[in-house]
Design brief:
The protein is mainly α. It contains four helices and no strands. α2 (28-45) crosses α4 (65-83). It is globular.
Length: 85
C-alpha cells in the first residue's frame, strides 16, 4: 500500500519529511517551495488515490500559480498542526 492510498498516512508521511527538513535547517520558505513543487508533480503525474487528494487535485488544476502556492502553504500548515510542530 502506498502512502498516497490513505489520507492520514499521507499527512503523517509529509509531517515526517517536514520534521526532517526542519531538523536539517531548511527554512520555512524552502519548505513551502518544496511543497509547491511536490504539489505540481502530484497534479501532473499521480492519479489521486482518495477523496481528499481528488479535491486537492481539482483545486490545484483550476488555481493560478499564486493560488497553488497558497494551497501548498496551507498543506504545510495542516501537516504542522497535525504534528504539533
Amino acid at each position: 500500500m502506498s502512502v498516497l492510498d490513505n489520507w492520514e498516512q499521507w499527512k503523517g508521511f509529509l509531517g515526517d519529511r517536514m520534521q526532517q527538513a526542519q531538523q536539517e535547517g531548511m527554512s520555512q520558505q524552502v519548505i513551502s517551495d518544496v511543497a509547491y513543487q511536490v504539489g505540481e508533480y502530484l497534479a501532473q503525474q499521480v492519479d489521486p488515490k482518495n477523496e481528499q487528494e481528488r479535491v486537492l487535485a481539482d483545486l490545484w488544476n483550476v488555481a493560478s500559480e499564486e493560488e497553488q502556492h497558497a494551497i501548498a502553504n496551507m498543506m504545510v500548515k495542516l501537516v504542522q498542526n497535525n504534528q504539533g510542530m
